[in-house]
C-alpha cells in the first residue's frame, strides 16, 4: 500500500573507500571484442541534438528533442508523427561504464566539477572594503556604511555612480557612523571625506545607496585574488540563476559583478565595497549583501580529497579509459554505437509521439544535508565548519561519496500533462523492453581488466540495472546489460607470416570477486543497482512536504522552518540523507517537528532575504 507520508530521495551515495587504488601492474595483454546488449527497464531518453525544437513547440524558449538517431534534423520544422530508428551512441555507454568502473575499482571521481558550493546562511554580514595595496597584495578592512540621501529614495545624481566608484562627501553627523550623506560629488577635493559607493538593492527591497568608508582595522591580509574572485562569482551567479529573480535585481547583480571584476583586475579604485562575515577567526566569507548566502572556501573537487581526478599517478579507471589534460593517456577500449533489435515499425520503439517532462534541475551541491557526511554530534554542518551545541568548529567537509540514482518501478513512471515552460523539455522517449546490441573493442588490456568490464556489462543476470541518458531522477534510463559473447584475437607467427587467431573467451565464471573488484563498495552497489531495492509503497522524488511543494519548503523545514536564525551558531539540520544500507531509506515529508527559529527577534521579513531558497 502506498505510504504518502514518506518518500525516497532519487539519489544516494556509494561511500568512498579509505584509499584511492593505483593502476594495476599486470603485464598480460589481450585483444578482441565483447558483444553485449542493453535492455530498457524504464523509458530511456538520449537527445538528437541536431534540432533543439524538433517538435516545433510554440512556447517561448521551450526546447524539444527527438531521440538520438543518425538522421540530421536541423532542417525539420516538426517531426511529430515521423519516427526514426533509434541509436544509443557509444559515447553514452562509455560514460556509463566508466562511472561504474570508477566506483567498483576504488578509482578517482572523474566527473567532479569546480563549482563552489553556495549556501544561504543566517548570519548578518558586515560592511568591508577589499583593498589592493601598492605591492599588489589584497586585504580586507572594516568599513563604516553611511546612507546616501535623506529621503527613502536615493538622490537622482547617484545615477552617475557605479558600484565601487569613489565618492567625496561632507562630514556626516553622527560619531557612531550612522548619520547620512547630504552633499556629495565625484570630484576630488570637493569635500573632505571619501568612501566607495555600493548600490544597495541587491535582491533587497531597499532604495538607498551607501558609501563605505574605510577604517584602519584590517580583517584579513594577503587574500588570494583568484579565490576571492571565484567566491564572488559563485555567489552572484547563484543569485542571478534563481528562477524567481526580478529583472532590476538581475541588472543590479550583473553590474556589481562586472565592477567587482574590474576592481580585482586592477582597473578601478584601490578599494571595493563588499560585505563579509568571519567564521571561527579564520574563514572570511565575502558577499554583495548583508543577509546573504555563504560560499564555501574551496571548490567541490577540493573536498573530494584523494579522489579528485588523477594528475600524476593514475587510478585503474584513468589507466584503462584514458585521461585528458596534463599527463594525458589514450584509451585502450572503444565502445561502438548500439543498434536496436528490429521491431516492425519505427513507431513501436517509442512511448509516445512526444511527452513533456518535469524540470530536471542540476545537482544541488549546496544541499549539505545530503551531500556531506554528517560530523558526529553536529547540529549543523557545511563544507567548512560544523556547529555542535552552539559552538563553531572548522573542518574540511567530506563528500558522502559517489552519486547513484535508485531504480524506479516501471509502473510508477507516468507522463502526466506537464505545462511547457522554458525550464522543462519535450522529448520522445524509448519505451521499456527495447533491446540494443553493440560491441566493446579492447586493445592490449589485462585479463583482470577484461573480466572487470565483462562483469559490469553482464550485471543484468544478477538483477542489477545501470542508469543511462536523461531524466534519471524521474526514473528514466534504467537498463540491464548482458554479454552475449567475447572473442579474443591472438597474434600467431606461422613461419614468416603474422596471423590472427580468433577464439572465444570463456567468461562463464567471471564474478565480482574473481574480477578483483572492490570489496568495500560491493553491498552498497548491489543495493542501489538493484532494480527492486526501493519498496513499492514509496514514491521516489525530490524532497517535498506535499504535492504543492516545489522543493524548497522541505529543506526550509529541515533547517528549522521559515525563519532564519540571526547567527550561525543557531543553525541546524534536522534530517540527513539515510545511508544506502539502512533498512529504511525513506524520509518523512514532515521534518520540522516544532523546531523552528521563532525566538529570533531580529528576523526581518520584509526584505525577504533571510528566507531559505534553494
Ligand atoms: Zn583517475
TrEMBL record:
Q: Which InterPro entries match?
A: CRISPR-assoc_RAMP_BGP1436, RAMP_III_fam
Which keywords, in A-to-Z order, does the entry hold?
Antiviral defense
Q: What is the superkingdom listed in this entry's lineage?
A: Bacteria
Q: Which Pfam families match?
A: RAMPs
Give the UniProt record's GO annotations in the biological process aspect.
Answer: defense response to virus
Where would I find the CRISPR type III-associated protein domain in this sequence? 38-479
**Keyword Metal-binding attributed:** no
The name this protein carries in UniProt is: CRISPR-associated protein
Q: Which species is this record about?
A: Holdemanella biformis DSM 3989
Amino acid at each position: 500500500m502506498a505510504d504518502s507520508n514518506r518518500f525516497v530521495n532519487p539519489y544516494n551515495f556509494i561511500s568512498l573507500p579509505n584509499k584511492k587504488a593505483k593502476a594495476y601492474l599486470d603485464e598480460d595483454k589481450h585483444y578482441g571484442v565483447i558483444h553485449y546488449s542493453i535492455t530498457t527497464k524504464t523509458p530511456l531518453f538520449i537527445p538528437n541534438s541536431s534540432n533543439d525544437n524538433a517538435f516545433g513547440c510554440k512556447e517561448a524558449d521551450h526546447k524539444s528533442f527527438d531521440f538520438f538517431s543518425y538522421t540530421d534534423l536541423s532542417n525539420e520544422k516538426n517531426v511529430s508523427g515521423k519516427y526514426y530508428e533509434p541509436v544509443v551512441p557509444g559515447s553514452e555507454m562509455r560514460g556509463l561504464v566508466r562511472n561504474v568502473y570508477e566506483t567498483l575499482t576504488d578509482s578517482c571521481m572523474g566527473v567532479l566539477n569546480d563549482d563552489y558550493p553556495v549556501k544561504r546562511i543566517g548570519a548578518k554580514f558586515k560592511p568591508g572594503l577589499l583593498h589592493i595595496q601598492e605591492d599588489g597584495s589584497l586585504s580586507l578592512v572594516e568599513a563604516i556604511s553611511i546612507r546616501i540621501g535623506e529621503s527613502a529614495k536615493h538622490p537622482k545624481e547617484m545615477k552617475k555612480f557605479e558600484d565601487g566608484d569613489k565618492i567625496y562627501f561632507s562630514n556626516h553627523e553622527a560619531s557612531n557612523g550612522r548619520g547620512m550623506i547630504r552633499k556629495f560629488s565625484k570630484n576630488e577635493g570637493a569635500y573632505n571625506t571619501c568612501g566607495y559607493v555600493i548600490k544597495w538593492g541587491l535582491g533587497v527591497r531597499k532604495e538607498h545607496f551607501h558609501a563605505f568608508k574605510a577604517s584602519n582595522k584590517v580583517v584579513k591580509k594577503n587574500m588570494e585574488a583568484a579565490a576571492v574572485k571565484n567566491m564572488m562569482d559563485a555567489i552572484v551567479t547563484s543569485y542571478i540563476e534563481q528562477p524567481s529573480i526580478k529583472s532590476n535585481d538581475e541588472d543590479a547583480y550583473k553590474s556589481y559583478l562586472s565592477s567587482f571584476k574590474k576592481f580585482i583586475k586592477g582597473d578601478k579604485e584601490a578599494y571595493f565595497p563588499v560585505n563579509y562575515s568571519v567564521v571561527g577567526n579564520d574563514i572570511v566569507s565575502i558577499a554583495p549583501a548583508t543577509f546573504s548566502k555563504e560560499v564555501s572556501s574551496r571548490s567541490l573537487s577540493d573536498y573530494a580529497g584523494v579522489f579528485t581526478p588523477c594528475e600524476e599517478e593514475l587510478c585503474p579507471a584513468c589507466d584503462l579509459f584514458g585521461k585528458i589534460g596534463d599527463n594525458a593517456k589514450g584509451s585502450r577500449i572503444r565502445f561502438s554505437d548500439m543498434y536496436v533489435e528490429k521491431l516492425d515499425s519505427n513507431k513501436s520503439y517509442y512511448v509516445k509521439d512526444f511527452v513533456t517532462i518535469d524540470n530536471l534541475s542540476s545537482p544541488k551541491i549546496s544541499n549539505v544535508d545530503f551531500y556531506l557526511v554528517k560530523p558526529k554530534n553536529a547540529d549543523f554542518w557545511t563544507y567548512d565548519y560544523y556547529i555542535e551545541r552552539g559552538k563553531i568548529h572548522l573542518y574540511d567537509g567530506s563528500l558522502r561519496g559517489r552519486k547513484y540514482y535508485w531504480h524506479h518501478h516501471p509502473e510508477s513512471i507516468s507522463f502526466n500533462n506537464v505545462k511547457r515552460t522554458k525550464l522543462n523539455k519535450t522529448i520522445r522517449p524509448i519505451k521499456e523492453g527495447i533491446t540494443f546490441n553493440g560491441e566493446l573493442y579492447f586493445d592490449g588490456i589485462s585479463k583482470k581488466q577484461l573480466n572487470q568490464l565483462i562483469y559490469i556489462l553482464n550485471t543484468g543476470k544478477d538483477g542489477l540495472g545501470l542508469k543511462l541518458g536523461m531524466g534519471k531522477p524521474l526514473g528514466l534510463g534504467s537498463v540491464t546489460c548482458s554479454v552475449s559473447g567475447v572473442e579474443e584475437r591472438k597474434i600467431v607467427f606461422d613461419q614468416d607470416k603474422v596471423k590472427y587467431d580468433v577464439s572465444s573467451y570463456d567468461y562463464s565464471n567471471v564474478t565480482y570477486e574473481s574480477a578483483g573488484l572492490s570489496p568495500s563498495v560491493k553491498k552498497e552497489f548491489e543495493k542501489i543497482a538493484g532494480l527492486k531495492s526501493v519498496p513499492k509503497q514509496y514514491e521516489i522524488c525530490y524532497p517535498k512536504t506535499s504535492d504543492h511543494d516545489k522543493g524548497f519548503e522541505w529543506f526550509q523545514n529541515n533547517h528549522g522552518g521559515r525563519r532564519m536564525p540571526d547567527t550561525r551558531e543557531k543553525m541546524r539540520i534536522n534530517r540527513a540523507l539515510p545511508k544506502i544500507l539502512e533498512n529504511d531509506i525513506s524520509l518523512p515529508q514532515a521534518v520540522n517537528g516544532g523546531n523552528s527559529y521563532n525566538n529570533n527577534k531580529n528576523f526581518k521579513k520584509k526584505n525577504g532575504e533571510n528566507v531559505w531558497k534553494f
